[in-house]
Design a protein that fits this description.
CATH architecture: Beta Barrel
Largest sheet: 6 strands, antiparallel, barrel
CATH class: Mainly Beta
Number of helices: 4
Radius of gyration: 18 Å
CATH topology: Thrombin, subunit H
Shape: globular
Order of helices and strands: EEHEEEEEEEEHEEEHEEEEEEEEEH
């Protein structure tokens, strides 16, 4: 177990202590501490709101593990174990063509000490406080240990705005095998965030309430057969291999396509799943894969997360997103996050 990552069963009151974890079960979710005190959370929010949100505007798309070699297969995935499903929570419908307000940008400081972003999405939970994203948009896979710094989520981000406020991450959860051996079949994170904050004037934060009560939440399904069609929502940016740059990363984009199993090179994975999608890799890491999505309610069921993209036909354009399969092990990570209460940054 790496420094700063805490085995479950340790209370939050001990997060400041030096901990030595015993051997972990392979299926154990791992708690990743972020801003675990309100003082720390206020400092994180202040960093992103400083100078009129300059750090949000100046952040660049995360470009770590964005591209893999890929081959589409015709085999299917046979679910192992019972299906597990959480229903969505309907929220406000975006006026922009039925795009979900649950999608947004995850901001953090990378290993290069610069601000970056991935995509994240809100999923339904008891405390209305969970954001799903790629595991390597939470853990710093370029360093020997620890989370990415100053982690926050801005739902419905568009052209530099935070219409529903900013949500500071308190703790996240990943699978033990992603923390310990970088198994990209487990490259998935569920992050518990505090109530949102807004900044109406310098150094003043106001409480905007619980995340899912403000923007709604997607459902989640695990141990499903491959979906015939998936809607992908994310903030792709960066060029295709041929140099074309169809996306800016400033607005939420949607693509719709069939799913398939894959072989990939460049990431250690046994059961990668692909979706037909033209999204470029930078920025779209963490994009949500939704089954049963309807524009009327802007809801569906999360059944995949983009962790990389691939050009499977060699035409110098990305044509596939890559996700871990949402199996029983992913269910265990979600259920640990689902039980975590977070609270407020300011009253």
């Amino acid at each position: 177990m790496r420094r700063a990552l805490i085995a479950l069963g340790v209370g939050l009151s001990m997060l400041g202590s030096t901990l030595v974890a015993g051997p972990a079960q392979a299926a154990s979710p791992v708690m990743v501490p972020l801003a675990t005190t309100t003082t720390a959370a206020q400092q994180v929010a202040g960093f992103w709101f400083a100078d009129g949100g300059a750090n949000l505007r100046n952040a660049t798309p995360y470009a770590v593990r964005t591209v893999v070699g890929g081959e589409r297969l015709t085999t299917d995935i046979v679910p192992e174990g019972p299906q597990y499903s959480i229903p969505p929570l309907e929220g406000p419908v975006s006026p922009e063509g039925g795009l979900p307000t649950t999608s947004g940008k995850v901001f953090f400081i990378g290993d290069d000490l610069q601000p970056h972003w991935c995509t994240g999405t809100v999923v339904h939970s008891k405390y209305r406080n969970i954001v799903a994203t790629a595991g390597h948009c939470l853990l710093n896979v370029e360093a020997p240990a620890g989370p990415l710094d100053k982690w926050v989520f801005v739902p419905a981000y568009s052209d530099g705005t935070a219409p529903f406020g900013l949500y500071v991450g308190k703790v996240g959860f990943v699978h033990h095998d992603f923390d310990d051996i970088r198994d990209y079949d487990r490259d998935l994170a569920f992050v518990n965030v505090y109530n949102g904050v807004a900044s109406s004037s310098p150094d003043v934060l106001t409480n905007t309430g619980r995340l899912a009560e403000n923007v709604g939440a997607q459902g989640v399904v695990f141990n499903q057969p491959l979906a015939p069609t998936i809607d992908v929502f994310g903030y792709p940016a960066g060029p295709n291999p041929g140099g074309s740059a169809p996306y800016t990363g400033e607005t939420l984009e949607r693509s719709t396509g069939p799913t398939f199993t894959m072989n990939v090179t460049g990431l250690p994975m046994d059961r990668p799943v692909g979706v037909d999608s033209p999204f470029t890799g930078e920025g779209s890491l963490g994009s949500s894969w939704l089954t049963g999505y309807t524009s009327d309610s802007s809801t569906g069921y999360l059944n995949g997360i983009t962790i990389s993209v691939s050009d499977t036909d060699g035409d110098n354009r990305y044509d596939a997103g890559v996700s871990p399969y949402f199996d029983r092990e992913a269910t265990l990570v979600y259920r640990k996050a689902e039980s975590m209460w977070t609270g407020t940054v300011v009253r």
